[in-house]
Please model this.
Amino acid sequence: MINVSEICKGYLTSDILGVGGVIKETPEDFVVTEIPAYEPSGSGEHLYLTIEKRGITTLEAIRRVAQELKISEKEIGYAGMKDAVGVTRQRISLLKIKAEDVAGRDLNGVKVLDAVRHGNKLKIGHLKGNRFRIVVRGVFANSYNSVSSIMGVLITHGVPNWFGYQRYGIQGNSHLIGYAMLQKDWQAAVDSLIGTSHSIMDDDWKSAINSYKQGRYLVAFRQMPKHCRSERDILQRLISKPDQYEKAFSAVHPRLKKLYLAAYQSSLFDKVVNLRLAELDQIWQGDLAWKHLNGSCFMVEDIAVDSERAAQFEISATGPMFGCRMKQPAGRQLLLEQQVLADANIAHDAFDLGGGLSVEGERRPLRVPLGEPVFQFEGDALILEFTLPKGCFATSVVREFTKNF
Model:
């Protein structure tokens, strides 16, 4: 098992002093705008909405839109998942909805900025990347040189492609749930999902967790906040059938189960990033290299030629999103990945869960380019703007500057 605090340990720019400061003091301090893969055509049965949300996840935004428009959540498409913190502008697609019925509306806290028709449903991955505007408040005085130097390293060598803490949920335990699922240890899965009270600020939520640990499931159910839907569903089953943890865990929505498994994959990937951080821009013989132009992979055989391509940021080494069908590297990287699995006591076939939950696996670049980077200071606030490819997290950039998480 991997503790979140043990995953993202180092910094690519560890020899440059951080500037301190904090992010996400207000939603406007963390603004994310999707960069779409294509523009809607203007005709077709699907309606593409550009929405703006504050303080809620993409899935919560979809739930609210579905309720307001009285449609099924399954009919709503989206290109990327965004977390709750900050202001996010992204696209979703709807069926059987007229543009004039939604344009300019506020759908229970989800603003509709525009509405254009298109021929197909929006699906996960239908975006190029994301543009970020992040305000870091309370940075140290005279930080210009540090910021400039850090920016230079990230531009030249790339951004470590960490998932980071936001991948692991509010309690930092999502990957532990996924690990327990792979081990088919359903009590551990339920224990991990209910979590621990030390990371929770809400008093009722804390009390519910403590009551669960004492086996007082009915009390825990009554104390658990209404927004903790999975926790409440599990507790409700345990009330009538104590100790039947597998049946209780089956109450969790399949979409969430997949997120937990993905979180565990992410934790193993982050460990590999950490192990190769000192050589992040290097290519090894036997690596599966990532072509940044199109996202395809190939086995590194001519190390001299491919090292030059890596130096030009044409390609990068990849790490594992482990799964039962993931393509295997060779040489040193294969040995490294085998050791990571051995340390976790996980076999490759453990990812073949069946029941629609099997994890196929894929490769992911260990570093990504920092696009269109600019920075400026306003008093003791550092304003960072940049783009990242889809699936990459802005905190991987920000932590290099602040050095405090």
Observations:
- The chain is about 35% helix and 20% strand.
- The CA atoms of residues 199 and 212 lie 16 Å apart.
- The chain has a mean pLDDT of 93.
- The first strand starts at residue 30 and ends at 36.
